[in-house]
From TrEMBL:
It comes from Kocuria oceani. This is YitT family protein. Keywords: Membrane, Transmembrane, Transmembrane helix. The keyword Transmembrane applies. Coiled coil: none annotated.
Amino acid sequence: MYWRPRNPNRSTDRPGPRRLPRRLVQLYAGLVLYGITMALFVRAELGVIPWDVLHQGLSRQLGVSMGTVVIAVSLLLLLLWIPLRERPGIGTVSNAVVVGLVLDATLAVLPPVESLPLRVLFVLAGVLLNAVATAAYIGVHLGPGPRDGLMTGLVRRTGGSVLIVRTSIEVTVVLAGWLLGGTVGLATVLYALAIGPLVQVLMPRMSVQLGR
């Protein structure tokens, strides 16, 4: 999940105590939905989202669940926040744990599918619902996810553009994951091309106005 805060000097956790219950509900609903959509891509077997290529490859090499790898990688990335001087929020910690748990739980109840039309439907639903989940999670302003913070921290420290830094990170994790046995396919490409525009359209509808 990538985001770019409108004002990096503004606290993500302070304002709007009356809106906090709504923000928490939206946060966890978004994270749960995000984990479910990750499972849809896995079961479709047409390629997973960029970071999940790495997660899947590590899962296959280490013999542990993919959700466990998601949590472990998230915690390792948080260590990289220290030199980057990024600040975690409740959304950061929640992202690091909830998404991986939901991914494993969904894979446990969602069986593999053989029908190609159903697999394509899984991918299309995964892209759309992942965009909803991303907009919901970002829109509550409760802290970036571990992968988001790595990107924004590197942008700030290096002075590079969001596009270049994000692309460099994603190309690196996709290549590493592919070498480890992760699945790269048409769904990976579709996600990479579609997720940004979809989130851009959904964000105004999902963003919580903190000052009101």
